[in-house]
Design goal:
Blueprint (H helix, E strand, L loop, with lengths): L5 H24 L6 H7 L4 H7 L3 H5 L3 H13 L7 H18 L9 H10 L1 H25 L6 H24 L4 H16 L14
Helix pairs in contact: 1-2, 2-3, 5-6, 5-8, 6-10, 7-8, 8-9, 9-10
């Protein structure tokens, strides 16, 4: 929150409090059984204040989506001339981890895995997560293709992003299923992503559309 004014810092604290309260209540009472009024009360704000930050209670669980999407695009835009595709993907992974620890819309680290389990166990939330992941995957593939036009065409870029994200998610889910802590889950995901990235050096140059 460095460089933010008092009002902005207060708004961020309120947002974080709402996210933390929602995750805790969903875990204790169940997603469907928890009301917006209860979340607001647990965060010590009025129900009206909740709606100033989130349109609905499920939006609390996806509050970090835009911040994460912006990070993906920023890392690609700020890449160095000498950065390979693998360098850029690894840097995205590193910065996503830091964002998860300190991001203004992330749940507290001790509640991060609880949030994921809640989403996975509720079909409507799981469906929304899938839509957001597909959108992020598309945006990432487009940005990488523009950044590495000599190496990636539409198909190759989609394949790279699908392999990288898919591997990271699969590795993380293994850790979640066996009850690992947040750091170990992240390490599992990044290890799986590196396995997928080992094939990047073997990527052929894209064929021209007319071929």
């Amino acid at each position: 929150m460095d460089g933010l004014g008092l009002r902005e810092r207060k708004k961020l604290r309120t947002k974080r409090a709402l996210v933390a309260a929602a995750v805790r209540l969903f875990a204790e009472k169940g997603y469907e059984q928890t009301t917006v009024a209860e979340i607001a009360a647990a965060a010590d704000v009025a129900t009206k204040t909740f709606f100033n930050y989130f349109p609905s209670k499920d939006d609390v669980l996806f509050a970090s989506h835009e911040e994460r999407r912006a990070l993906l695009l920023r890392v690609i835009a700020e890449r160095r001339p000498e950065d390979t595709l693998r360098d850029t993907l690894e840097r995205i992974g590193e910065e996503l981890w830091q964002l998860m620890l300190t991001g203004s819309t992330e749940p507290p680290p001790e509640l991060a895995t609880t949030r994921v389990r809640l989403i996975l166990n509720e079909p409507p939330l799981r469906a929304r997560m899938l839509r957001l992941l597909l959108d992020a995957q598309h945006d990432l593939a487009e940005a990488l293709r523009a950044a590495y036009p000599d190496q990636l065409d539409e198909i190759t870029s989609a394949a790279v992003v699908g392999a990288w994200l898919g591997a990271a998610q699969a590795g993380a889910l293994v850790g979640i299923a066996r009850g690992d802590d947040m750091e170990r889950i992240w390490q599992n995901g990044m290890r799986a992503a590196r396995i997928a990235m080992d094939g990047l050096d073997a990527l052929p140059l894209p064929r021209r559309q007319e071929e």
